[in-house]
User: What shape does this take?
Amino acid sequence: MNEETKTPITPEEIEAVKTERGGWTKAQLAEWGVPWPPPKGWKEKIVKDGYPYSEKGIDETA
Assistant: This one.
């Protein structure tokens, strides 16, 4: 199996690269592997799991 290496990131690091208008550029999100438009919960997911962002593992079967 080919496991992807994740890079840790903090909420402060994410906030530090916000634009003047309070968002993130498409290019910045792409660096973190976040698709455009960014899905709900993307910040929490990369803080928890690291980046690049992945929607894998979201399967929450009850």
